Amino acid sequence: MNQVMSRVLFCRYATAAGLMLLMASPASAQQSSGLPDAPVSTRALTAQAQTPPPLTTPQQASPPLPKAPGLAITLEQALELAKRNNPTLQANQALIQQNKAQEITANLRPNPVLSWDSQFLPLFSPSLWSDSNYWETQAQYDVGIGYLFERGRKRQHRVDAARTLTAVTESQVSDAQRTVLSSAAQLFIAALLAKSNLEFAEGLLDSYKKTVDLSEERFKAGAMSRNDVLKIQLQSLQFETDVSSARLAHTQALTSLRQFLGFDSVPADYDVDGKLVYEAVPLRLEAVQARALANRPDRQAAQRSVIASQSQVGLAKANGKVDLNVNFDYTRLNQSNLGAFYFNIPLPVFNKNQGEIARTQYVVTQSQFQQKAAEQQVLTDVRNSYEGLRSSEKVVQLYDKGYLEKATQSLDITRFSYEHGAASLLDFLDAERSYRSVQLSYRQALATYMTSLEQLRQAVGTRELR
After folding, report:
1. 41, 90, 204, 355: which has the highest count of C-beta atoms within 10 A?
2. In the predicted model, what is the mean pLDDT of residues 145-154?
3. 116 occurs within a structural domain
């Protein structure tokens, strides 16, 4: 009985000493869990550094052989590949060339018209076909040339309307590029998150395998019951499932990103290179809104649409001006050479193109309202993205200011207590699950922050926010 009491007292004293040691040295607890030191304004996350250490074992397994490095692209390289190889952007670039071809068509002048005829042919008097005198004195031959003189500066208005339409298309293509690049950046961040989760899950599995091996050794030594060993072994299923799910998510994320980069631009076994990182971005809402109003391509397209609609009004008024058709005819008749001028111009009594002029004026009004709506949409997008960035930033700061360290300390304390008999196996497994949940949530918070930053860049219309 005295021996049992002595053993219980020893375990209690050992546990209390271990708790005091862990609480007095949080830096050493952080070092044991591998949490990297980071500056206040920037925090990077790597999966290997966040893997908890296994239970102490005298036999250390040999490290796995490193895999052959493949092609790994950074975020800047991914955006450049998307800009050059994305099929949607390439198709939109063709729209600009189509509009420039229409400018050539708009600048063309009318073609001159060549005409000729023969009159008084003896079709019903066959005997006259052999009479040379008839052909010289009775038959008539005409050759003429005509040209349509456009009035009202129609050609200049057509060119102006075509050029303004090209400017609108260029802004629309730039806006499409803004959307595609933002989607590519967000998919890149999703691939980084999937990669980080996969590395973290693999690290946890390797660490837990060592815990299982140590538990089996303790069972053989009589220091652990068979039931506890089975519980530890069954918990491996969760770690195996996490690795499988993380590997699938990583593959799917890379496939989705490859679609935006162009399938032929990267090999099938490529990967992403980067870290989930928190970078503080000091911004003022009014400054980014003003920058967005100056840079957003969709707002520029709305502004240019107003100019384009105004040019359509000028073209409609020019088309209301009637054109002059001038012809000159040369005639050979009765051995005489004759000439004649013909002038033809419609009388604008009824049709002055009034309907088209009125329609284009209403189009101007419509485009002005659309410009105002585009400006309001820009301000709304920037405000929503800005607030989303600040919200996600606060969540990341909550983890950085203590929750990560607390999760690591909780796991280390529970592990120490379990090793010395002061905590149950269920407590240890619950601490493992809590630690894994906190780490995965932190990774998701970093990815959400980086995604919010990309959404703000998309809302502003440029990657340079300051």
Report:
1. 204
2. 95
3. no
